[in-house]
């Protein structure tokens, strides 16, 4: 995978940090404005010390839960500008590619999680300057992984627009991803925290392993739900889980808070991907920003297919040949619609969203914690 050299690079940075402080490359960021406290009565814990909310697939969140993006809007707004500044380079093509990509990536879901996790761990106080920088680094790593994935997967579009490699070519797209990872490694070093460097290096390692699991899986492994969920954690959830843990570390919070936020990110990330699997079957190309059934067109068997396999064993041979025949995707799509595969995918996504919410029980009730709870609903209800 094209991410592999940067796993080594991040670990090398950790070694350098252990030998002494690096020169600070810029003045400390000013503390962002406090979070708006829109709600006077945050969700309390129940008798089991879990947040007292009931999460159901397709159910709207309680009106008392705040909009996560609004809660951190004062910190996200400068992030929109600073990300473009951070990728500034003497290579205008790479800069233009990176900036073009940031304009396509949506609502800044991952940095929002990092900023909210940082705040929730501190009882509702806003993220500090180093945590804001971590949010920027997280988004740069995410963007780099998508640039590389689009090349690997031969994707034509990204959120309904032409994929970067379709505009600039594969070489430039890969180099732009490498460039973002290199910039992220410099910014990460400036945080001056060895453990945080190791956590973000582990994110890259997990992404590489997940990509290898997808590309190099043995035929029988393609039929195993556990193999698929392990790959899903590595490719999608590891970045959320370990960046949330890193946010707690940078806030100086105890191990139980770090573990809780890691668990939250892990389960939220898995739920996110399971809903993505579900949408690939029920969403339209217009809403998804990519063709429906695109996973099978890429030779990938996702959760709905693996659940349907239990009812229709003939799917197994199709999965093993990675949907190689022209009619395979359409046939399996019909079988999935006749099976309980979509319902069971909904149930599994809901179970992970509930586990994410339960993990927050160790944190004090606050607006930021409520916003994290709201994300558990939003992930299940998303349409794209």
Q: Could you walk me through the main structural features you see in this protein, from its secondary elements to its overall organization?
A:
Helices cover 65% and strands 1% of the residues. It is mainly α and 384 residues long. A two-stranded antiparallel ribbon has the order 1-2. The chain is globular. The two termini are 27 Å apart.
Summarize the structure.
The protein has 384 residues and is mainly alpha-helical. The protein has helices spanning 4-18, 68-71, 73-86, 92-102, 109-121, 129-152, 164-168, 170-189, 194-216, 225-250, 255-282, 285-288, 294-297, 303-309, 315-320, 328-338, 341-359, 367-381; strands at residues 157-158, 161-162.
Keywords:
384 residues; single chain; two-stranded antiparallel ribbon; mainly alpha
Order of strands, widest sheet: 1-2
**First-to-last CA distance:** 27 Å
Q: How many DSSP E strands?
A: 2
**Structural class category:** mainly alpha
The major sheet is characterized as: 2 strands, antiparallel
- Overall mean pLDDT score? 85
Segments where pLDDT lies below 50 for 5+ residues?
20-37
Radius of gyration based on Cα positions: 21 Å
- What is the 3D form? globular
Strand content: under 5%
Q: What count of helical segments does DSSP give? A: 18
Residue share in helix: 55-70%
User: What are the secondary-structure elements, in order, as H or E?
Assistant: HHHHHHEEHHHHHHHHHHHH
